Amino acid sequence: MWEGRIEKPDEVYPPRLIADARGAILNHMVNSRAQPLDRTFGALADPTRRTLVATLAYGPSTVGALAGPLPISLVAVGKHLTVLERAGLVDRTRVGRTVVCTLRPEALREATAWLEQYRGFWSDRLDSLHNYLAGPSTEETP
Predict the structure, then answer these.
(1) Closest Cα to residue 84, out of 120, 123, 55?
(2) Whether 111 contacts 50, CB under 8 Å
(3) Beta-carbon-side half-sphere exposure of residue 86 (alpha carbons within 13 Å)
């Protein structure tokens, strides 16, 4: 029974879950320091952030121009841009009172290189599936 205190964390929680001094449970698998590739894929997991990246692929843009067509607040766009910036996908520079965002394609190149490692594998698997499905029929016709 949980009584709000932990005397032996290893006996109460699985090894990856521990309690800090405040009693909050931390999962070190989830709260670990993310690698750059993890941050890139995490940032691109959200459709709004993918839309921002796609827009910035055409060239630099102000935060206001990026927010214009989106059905979210300017504050929410700023938070999405912060995630993209931390992932190394976007640079923000202040020009007077305006914030200009620029896409940094280096992080996308790293993600593309990682995905390319698996392109051959999946291509072979899909070819095998195609051949299996298009193979000779096992039914005999009279």
Answers:
(1) 55
(2) no
(3) 16
Edge-to-edge order in the sheet of strand 61-62: 61-62, 98-103, 90-95
pLDDT along the chain (142 residues), means of 10: 44 50 54 74 95 96 94 94 95 93 91 88 88 76 54
**The CA-based dihedral angle spanning residues 3, 5, 8, 10, taken in that order and rounded to the nearest 10 degrees:** 80
Instruction: Give the amino acid at 12.
Output: V
Domain annotation for the chain: domains and CATH numbers: 1-32 (no CATH), 36-106 (1.10.10.10)
Helix 47-56 to helix 74-86 angle, to the nearest 10 degrees?
80
Long-range contacts of 89-92 (CB under 8 A, 24+ apart): 89/40, 89/43, 89/44, 89/53, 90/52, 90/53, 90/56, 92/63
Round to whole Å and give the CA distance between 63 and 61: 7
